Amino acid sequence: MVSALKDIPWDKFEVAVPAFLTIVTMPLSYSIATGIAVGFIFYPITMVAKGRFKEVNPVMWVLFVIFIVYLGFIH
């Protein structure tokens, strides 16, 4: 599974940060779902930070809200 990490464009901030946080969160939280949720939350945030707001699919914004609610109810 780790061999797929070489295909991530690590030089692109808006892709690398959500990927890194997803990879790190999964083993630290003992939950694949939480890791994926963190990735779905930080992808739109980093895209907005880079000024690429219009490139984010509306489905990603829906998932952003769903996963924020999901993580809110876990704790």
From TrEMBL:
<keyword id="KW-0812">Transmembrane</keyword>
<feature type="transmembrane region" description="Helical">
    <location>
        <begin position="55"/>
        <end position="74"/>
    </location>
</feature>
<protein>
    <submittedName>
        <fullName>Xanthine/uracil/thiamine/ascorbate permease family protein</fullName>
    </submittedName>
</protein>
<dbReference type="GO" id="GO:0005345">
    <property type="term" value="F:purine nucleobase transmembrane transporter activity"/>
</dbReference>
<feature type="transmembrane region" description="Helical">
    <location>
        <begin position="20"/>
        <end position="43"/>
    </location>
</feature>
<keyword id="KW-1133">Transmembrane helix</keyword>
<dbReference type="GO" id="GO:0005886">
    <property type="term" value="C:plasma membrane"/>
</dbReference>
<keyword id="KW-0813">Transport</keyword>
<dbReference type="InterPro" id="IPR045018">
    <property type="entry name" value="Azg-like"/>
</dbReference>
<keyword id="KW-0472">Membrane</keyword>
